[in-house]
């Protein structure tokens, strides 16, 4: 019999009426002949309230007790939901994470799922029950209750759908689907008919809170079709599947992280392992770093900048203080800017289209919005802007890419990729732990060159002007990294195919002369090594492992970019093959 997983988020179970309405949806699916597993979140804002309560007791609640506390929110909902179903005359059984058999690691408040035993659920389903599973929680090997991180019920739902080989996973929420951007901020946003796993992974990881990004890792790895829809209606919503909505569109959506912090660590000794110590300390706390820039500064000391979500600021500062205590020379100074937002665009089509970055920069420049940092990856471009102009920036970008318009080549029929039982079993065998890192390939591109403008004025529209000139010469730009230097200057680096480096350099020189800034520097040949896979950023140790191995081999990283599906580093051309071999070796267990 086919299994359907239905997940109801906090607002969709906020009161008894809503719980009864959700129960009716599950009963309808049951009556249509499916076995039904419901996953429910804590009622309304209950998790927030519990967190606030803990903070009234202590500023820094121990994470084990935090999990004990937060898991109660979901326990209330499952019990009430089971009562609701039973009073309609149907059989239901509620289960906590431990009872379902969700085993996680012991990283309290950010635990990852290691395994799920389906026996108990199967027995209850075969006995005619609707199974009601508590979202967001599991237990570690010592039976301590763990939680999966805010928004983690989505991950419970898709994980259950994956291991139960469910026909689909329905995510019932307070919007009627996935929009081109958060509809609460941009009312013109359009509901998309479908979105690909990779695009949704990036969108979710870059701030589209409608889905927990780790749930999409499960969906992608196990090919689970996810249907995001409204709990208040029966209309179809958005399908998250392997194919994008449009093949021709460069950009499928835009996302915002309102509270993003940029940290800058200066005076890091420029010798192997120094930067790596910093990255490792942060990664060990499962803090997701983004927009990483390393510069070799004066007197052989390096400067490292990276961004983190603001809720991770105090944990990050603690990690850095610890590094400093361990070795006073680890770095000289630490500063941060916490009045920033990160705006990103995402889309498969970016890979093939030129001028996407330029269009984004130009739109912001026209509105006089200053870009404080840029980082690109295969299917996303992120910029940092001042918080005060962030919402305007998001609206501007949404309009510039006409995301409100239905794509002309919109996929008419939903084609689901077939996955055989053998493939699913293969996937479960490939993964020793369900949320393990998976890397599909490591690639070397030796046909790249790099141009750096060391001092670009930090004023609105500068990046747009520079890239417009470069596009006018039909030069395809690949990676772009712009970072804040000291004072009012920024440093802008980008890579181009080797054959167009002369042209790109010429344009950059003209721009430099025009703006009376220092001449560009050119590296006529560099090597780019890219790792692609799933959940590369949410597995926070990927960056630090890469940096560690390359540092040990004395290979300097000239540029770096990160995303959920791809991670690239640029190194000197003659080091390309060696770096590639090192990374292949380091990640061999994650490669098929
Ligand atoms: P739930 O409690 O059901 O899990 P969430 O609050 O976690 O619901 O997620 C739904 C919210 O996500 C919406 O109300 C919306 O404001 C926000 N959101 C952010 N980005 C998007 C997007 N691209 N599409 C749809 N909703 C989005
Ligand atoms: N209740 C948890 C939270 O608010 C999990 C979830 O709703 O997904 O983060
Ligand atoms: Mg949610």
Write a structural description:
This protein is of the alpha+beta class. It is 34% helix and 29% strand. It is built from 17 helices and 24 strands. A twelve-stranded antiparallel sheet has the order 14-15-13-16-18-17-20-21-19-22-24-23. Helix 2 (46-57) packs antiparallel against helix 3 (63-87) and helix 9 runs antiparallel to helix 16. 51% of the residues are buried. Bound molecules: adenosine-5'-diphosphate, aspartic acid and magnesium ion. Residues 9, 151, 154 line the site of magnesium ion.
Which spans of ≥5 residues are poorly predicted at pLDDT below 50? none
Instruction: Tell me, rounded to a whole number, the average pLDDT.
Output: 93
How far from one another are the termini? 32 Å
Beta strands, count: 24
Strand portion: 25-35%
| CA-based gyration radius | 24 Å
The biggest beta sheet reads: 12 strands, antiparallel
Q: What is the count of helical runs? A: 17
Structure classification: alpha+beta
Hetero groups in this structure are: adenosine-5'-diphosphate, aspartic acid, magnesium ion
Describe how the helices and strands are arranged.
Elements (H helix, E strand, L loop, with lengths): L2 E6 L7 H16 L3 E6 L5 H12 L5 H25 L4 E4 L1 H4 L1 E3 L8 E4 L2 H8 L3 E5 L2 E3 L5 E3 L5 H11 L4 E6 L20 E3 H9 L7 H10 L3 E5 L7 E4 L11 E17 L4 H11 L5 E7 L4 E9 L3 H14 L6 E14 L9 H11 L6 E5 L2 E7 L3 H11 L20 H10 L7 E20 L4 H11 L7 E5 L4 E9 L3 H14 L6 E14 L6 H12 L6 E4 L3 E7 L3 H11 L6
Parallel strand pairs: 1-2, 1-9, 2-6, 3-6, 9-11, 10-12
Antiparallel strand pairs: 4-5, 7-8, 11-12, 13-15, 13-16, 14-15, 16-18, 17-18, 17-20, 19-21, 19-22, 20-21, 22-24, 23-24
The structure holds adenosine-5'-diphosphate, aspartic acid and magnesium ion.
